[in-house]
Amino acid sequence: MKKSHSHILVVDDDQEIRILVARQLRRHGFVVDVAANGIEMRNILGTARIDLVVLDRIMPGEDGLTLCQELRTTSNIPVIMLTLLGSETDRIVGLEMGADDYIPKPFNPQELIARIRAVLRRANELPINTPDYRDRRLRFSGWTLDGRARRLTAPDGSIVTLTDGEFDLLKAFAERAGVVLNRDQLLDLTSGRQPGLFDRSIDMQIARLRRKLAAYADANEFIKTIRQRGYMFSADVVEADE
């Protein structure tokens, strides 16, 4: 079997689970570190390049949701959450907190491997070597998107009111103009900013964003639907002069 070499961090207070998961991951070619709590997790993250974290939901002290939120605010490392709480509500809460996937215990180790590979593949499909536009100003067709001020200005000088989720979606599109992005990629690019943004709600956010842009001419045509693939921002985007 081809070696993966991706570096996985398993965070679980249950030693048996840590051993089981680590053994399975190593059999499939992953490099593995384990941690029993948030302190050990941070120590490892400070010394190793981790590609994905497998995180237990229920732990004494700092629980998995708290640690997941911390990871989302400090890094883009994908997170798969393991939990005894397998209800739909618990899954939604985990996703809203920034988890990339959510697997109830007990779980099939082969399913965990497949989920890890899927999340890593999704993360690796995101466009790389993209300039950091987080605090920069972008211009397209007379519009100005100010990352520092989190403000969108229409060609006539009007300020367009956007929710945080709408702004982050537009920023993700503008930073990757001409690139087709599917729902999973858009979720990854906007996760941690707007609670409730997952699955088909991406489509609803895009529909609302299109309507707001369309109020200022034919700007809704900027976001193209690419059948069976996703969405693409079709405008020519340049960095604005300061």
Characterize the structure shown.
The modification 4-aspartylphosphate is found at residue 56. It is found in: Cytoplasm. Its main location: cytoplasm. One of its GO terms (biological process) is regulation of DNA-templated transcription. The chain has two domains: 7-125, 3-Layer(aba) Sandwich (Rossmann fold); 137-239, Orthogonal Bundle (Arc Repressor Mutant, subunit A), CATH 1.10.10. It is 38% helix and 19% strand. The chain has helices spanning 15-27, 38-45, 64-74, 88-96, 109-125, 164-175, 183-190, 201-214; strands at residues 7-11, 31-35, 52-56, 79-83, 101-104, 137-140, 143-146, 151-153, 159-160, 223-226, 230-233, 238-239. The protein has a five-stranded parallel beta sheet, with helices on both faces. A hairpin with a 2-residue loop joins strand 6 (137-140) and strand 7 (143-146).
